[in-house]
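User: We ran a pulldown and think these components assemble together. Before we commit to crystallization trials, I'd like a predicted model of the whole complex to look at. Sequences follow.
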Amino acid sequence: MTRPLLEVEDLAVEFDTHGGTVKAVRGVSFSLQEGQTLAVVGESGCGKSVCVQSLVGLIPMPPGRITKGSARLHGEEILGYETLGGKRVRGQMIGMIFQDPMTSLNPTMRIGDQIAEPLCLHRGMRRRDARKRAIELLELSQVAEATKRARQYPFEFSGGMLQRVMIACALACEPRILIADEPTTALDVTIQAQILSLMRDLQQERRMSLILITHDLGVVAQMADEVVVMYAGKVVETGSSDDIFYSSGHPYTQGLKSAMPQNQDRRAQRLEPIAGSPPDLFDPPQGCGYFDRCPQAMRVCEQHHPPDVALGKPLHRCACWLHDERASDDD
Amino acid sequence: MWRYTFKRLIQGIVTVWFIATATFFVMHFVPGDPLSDARATSEQIRKNLEARYGLDKPLAEQYYIYLKNIASGDLGISFTQQNREVNDIIREHFPVSAALGVLAVVFAALGGILWGALTALFRNRMPDIVIMFFVVLGVSVPSFVFAALGQLSLVTLNDWLGTSILPVAGWGSVQHLLVPSLVLGLGTMAFLTRLMRSSMLEVTGADYVRTARAKGLNATQIFIRHQLRNAILPVVTVLGPAIATITTGGFVVEIVFAIPGLGRFFVQSVQQLDYTVIMGTTVFYGGFLVFMVIAVDLVYGLIDPRVRVR
Amino acid sequence: MSAAELDFSPAERSTEAARIVRPSLSYWQDAWRRLRQNPRTMTSLVIVIGLLAFTLAGPWIWRVDPANQDLDQLSIPPGAPRSAFIVEPYRAWTRSAPVPGAGLRLAEEASTQRVRLVWDTREDSPAFEVFRDNYPPTATALGIPLGEVLLSDGLAFEDRLALEPTTYYYSIVPVDADNHLLMNARETIKVDVKRVITLEGARQRGLIAEDARMQVGDQVRLALHPLGTDYLGRDMLARLMHGARVSLFIGIVAPLLYVLLGVAYGSIAGFVGGATDQLLMRFADFVVALPFLLFMILFKVLFGIGPGESGIVPMLVALVILGWPATARLVRGQILQIREESYVSAARLMGSPTGYLIARHMIPNTLGVILVTLTFAIPSAIFTEAFLSFIGMGVAPPTPSWGSMSNEGIKTMLVSPHELILPAIFISVTVLAFNLLGDGLRDALDARMRSVE
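Assistant: Here's a predicted model for the assembly, 1094 residues in total across the polymer chains.
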């Protein structure tokens, strides 16, 4: 196994609010291989966006705070650093696209200029060259009539088109990693598929790594090589896409799967919602965060956080007491 | 854009017609007689005067003549200052008010944008608290108090320095203009500062600012290239009404600082019941404000592409 | 961690996993809760209540006629000493006794009754010019000239010109034969003037009882003016209270009326819709375009102010005529918007009658906005009244209003600033309080912010 492109270790993020300190991310570790797609999955508020945005310093500080942990790109620390080897971490090393393309672009700036902006500022390109490059990038993102479109403003575009523009923008400086934070949530289903396949094509073409944040297991199945499942600010299970879908080890992952519609031949398929709501992260529980909602909860889960254990496959790991040998005795 | 401009201009003309009509009828129903003062001594003089001002004709015809004159740019002859055309009066006094007003608008707009941006950047820290304290003061203190305080501080300053570096009252040079226009702009500046602050805060939390950060721009680049322009937009939209406030607020400043502007003249003419001057000045001010608002809207169209393309 | 501590048996839990933690609050309960939590709003609320008490109850406690002139105390600042000594009635100066000393000096103790100066003769000066100033004189400014004294009149001068109990600087300048002032030879003396009153005067003014036994040299206290007097000797506190009645009456009643008018107009336009709506709103647009202050002045001319009238009603009417369109636009917009909201459609789908829709959705969702508009309309109406009264187009004298008091105060700004500052402070504090109250109300009533906390 080669050294991973990005290694995140024991990352913790807190937010100071009027109501107290929210412990949004509580010790998260994962790694990303060159050229692969990593999906970070979990329900709203589980800390997946915060976790990934804090890697590139995108969370507002204050009130946000990275309390511990490290993130190494090519083996070098990037947490708290703006640049790495003369290149800016944000924009040049890591590109990002966001959930709502309609509001993520400056409404008073021409599309072409917004794409050309990082080229001028980071690469010192001349304005004219940068504009030309912006048009090429638009074409690459399959925006029709790119020359004309580059002179237009965001309100003249549809949501799907704007997400293509966002992709062109993020790829302008040829980053090694693209972070996509729920890139298709705000889009129509038909457009979703187009955007996803565009992202996959561009990723393969450029041998880029992709971090995909989503709560949509369908998207995960379509795109991901590796999956990280997060719950209440912690990673509950990691593994390859197959591991997660066919031999998931954590009750939460199983719960997520049974809440997802499946295209299989089951006559009376019934979606099972996960009852209850996630724990209060102002005062996170001592034990397993899923304890309150877990159908298989045991007494031990309430007070003791489960250790991370490997489940057979090299990268398949899960944090649940059910995998403790003492638990299986009782069953 | 051209069609929009044309439409706005037509609307403006209709509005000015409404203002002129309202002025005409309000003034027509003023109790008393415009010629009741000492000048109309004999019946004959009275007749002559009535004929001269067209007061002997039926109301509808008077209204028609009045509108026709306004359309041809003739606002009539003053009642109290014989043989002086209202146009001449406006030509003489309005530039003074305009110079004062323009400078005040510039002070207010630049100050508002600057202070507003500063308070937003230093949100909830000392500069923000201090500036916002003055802003609250600025929107709560009436303009004549500012004028009085401005004059008082000028007197004190000149006393303290022993020389007169800035004149306390009167008209004639740029120095005469500085303090009155600053005083005139203060209230609006405070109002614009507050608007700019909230608009900046809104913009700071906007998704496209996050995108700009994700693109690797530093804080200064983001501020200049993305935040400022978007935050100024709401400030520009209220500039039209702000010009109106400053224009009429000028009355007080002109009175306190003894500046021979149109505002002071208007107040005088009301006290003397100089009908034609009152009507002429009101229509002139009304038209001026209507077209200033249109001008501001058109300028807004130039900076906001969402309006421009439509 | 030893194995004995860990219990792997199934957990028993209470079934009520999802409990409602917060009590449910109605819109107004929630708004009130937020309002109470905002210290600035509560302070401004206290100020507003205080102002209302000052206005309504004040004149019952401080029973001084605001039109009454106290000619002994003109333009006195707040807290000025008000004791006076009883003196003999004025008698002409006989100049019988010689005054010891040399140079410019006082012949007798200076009082508000008279200041008597004597000085020594001087060669080649057939006359002297006498000046008085409130400040130490400079080479160029000696104050007001009191008169010329010829040598033949004797070397003495008596000043009885509007004397105040303060410190004066008297200067005499010799005049040479060619009528030139010899500025280099001037002499200046600092004189502290004592306030005095005759026994008769004190009785007339009711400062002492008719049968009181007082003699020359005794002290009496002049009428109390806690906030001083204006240039006509009228009590500032009484005038501020009565002025508050005018200012607050216009400031509260006018917005109340025009907001109500605007609500009625806007709701009709919003509910009826169609061509009526277009017509109504076009008219509102025209009224908005009228230059506000100019038309306030025109209306004031139109309604005129007869003798003895205060001019309050004309101003009220003018404010209502010009003020309503903003509220009308707002309410119409709210109603059109709410009609399109999905919760209204949902309620309609569930078969709610129109009356219920209006009571349950339209009113609660517009009332907040209307309340906020009203709160912000009050300071602007107070400003308008003050502005108009200040340029002499508002309430007619002698009716006091804060604006007309400021107008009078600015004339004496340099010598007695309290006459401008006091009404200005009242206007500012009132406007500030209502502005802050409006801010607080807006924050408290903004339904969008309710869930965020």
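The longest helix of chain A spans residues 189-206. That may be worth checking against your pulldown data before setting up trials.

User: Thanks, that helps.
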